[in-house]
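Subject: Sanity check before I submit

Could someone independently write out the structure tokens for this chain? I want to compare against mine line by line before I put it in a report. The sequence has 233 residues.
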Amino acid sequence: MPEPQPQIAGPEEVPRPTPLFEAAVAASLALAALSLLLFGWLGREVLAGDTARFDNAVRSWVHQFASSGMTSAMKAVSLLGYEILLAEVMIALIVFARLRWKRAALWLLITMIGSVLLDAALKFLYHRVRPTPFFGAEARYYSFPSGHALSSLCFYGVMAGLLSARIKSLPWRIAIWVLAALLVIAIGLSRIYLGVHYPSDVLAGYLAATVWVSTIIVLDHVRKVRRSSKQTA
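---
Independent answer below. Compare away.
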């Protein structure tokens, strides 16, 4: 028998507000607030130099697994966090346009533009010097937060959310989220392994991305509620 294909919802279906729907909004707000507090705390620790022991310990532990094969693999994974990611964003926007997923394309575009601006602003604000890399040339930009970690969580997280919201099959939804999580974690680890970022940079990138993505989710839910209310009025 042929394998079941994921059932895809209509391009712009608007869900009715439900208790679960409202709980998701509240959870997103709480996650954004918590991530913002943690980012602020981590930023202060970095400026005070109190993360040095943690950063050096993790860098040394990760570096003990170095090998030529692992280095090649990590360099390839790292590309998924920025260089290849740019191409993935363009492909996703083209596919969304062909599927007439206008709202999905809009939110993806807003999320990624916001991630670039957020990364640049935070790097300029903290002015953290890059660590000496284990492999490859030194990067020219500041270190805190990791742009690869921030951008990858924004892109793969939002893509997982947009796709799972439009696919009715629970196994496919779970598979999408698991794949997105593995990609984001692998990209963060690759930056630490290559030595181009401190572990605290990667954590900060994840936290900043969580604040931004959670805010986008809340705004998207609010828009859905208003649209649903107008349709039932």
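---
OP: Matches mine. For the report I'm noting this point. Helices lie at 19-48, 52-63, 68-79, 83-99, 102-126, 147-166, 170-194, 199-232.
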